[in-house]
Amino acid sequence: MAGGRLHRASLHGESGRFVTPATRPGHDLRLRWLTPSGKEITFCGHATVATGHVLAETGRLTRDRVVFDTLGGTLPVAVAATAERVVVWLEPALPTCIPYPESLGPVLDALRVSAEGVGSWALPALTGERDLLILRDPRGPSHRFCPRCDPRLALAIRPSPG
Q1: What is the pLDDT of residues 112-162, one digit of tens each?
Q2: Are 34 and 42 in contact, with CB atoms under 8 Å apart?
Q3: Which element (helix H / strand E) includes 22?
Q4: Can you say whether the dihedral through the CA atoms of 22, 127, 55, 10 is positive or negative?
Q5: Is the pTM of this model over 0.90?
Q6: What is the H or E stretch that residue 5 is in?
Q7: Which of 51, 70, 129, 134 sits in a 20 to 30 Å window from 118, CA-based?
Q8: In order of start, what are the domains of the chain with their CATH numbers?
Q9: How far apart are CA 120 and CA 136, in angstroms?
Q10: Ramachandran area for residue 130 (φ above 0: left; ψ -120 to 50: alpha; else beta)
């Protein structure tokens, strides 16, 4: 299915998951997750568990393990099916983050937040989805980040490419 058709199909729910034949050696099936806006994401655990469950319940899995080819890479899934239930175990590689290579100044200015609200125990980092993770200092003026949020939580934003 082409990207545009996948996007249109995914609009019928919060997100779409699509299983197609594998295109790379060593993989059983290709699994894609699309957001309602049509963006393919690298990982979605709940949708993967649901996909494994449906494949097992409908008899489309012939083994107790399936290896999906995803945008995020290889994703092995173990499936234990009995007459009473199906149990699905994800075996994902641990996600990696990389240090944010730029100054936080412009980001903090855009958020109208001072640097005192940023935690100093870990560097800002980019996820595989290019979300920027900024740890907040629970002793600082974190209410400016999100007035109703727990101050121990990280702030995740997506900087515009540029």
Answers
A1: 777 877 877 788 898 877 788 887 776 665 455 555 555 555 555 555 554
A2: no
A3: none
A4: negative
A5: no
A6: helix 3-10
A7: 129
A8: 3-90 (3.10.310.10), 98-157 (no CATH)
A9: 8
A10: left
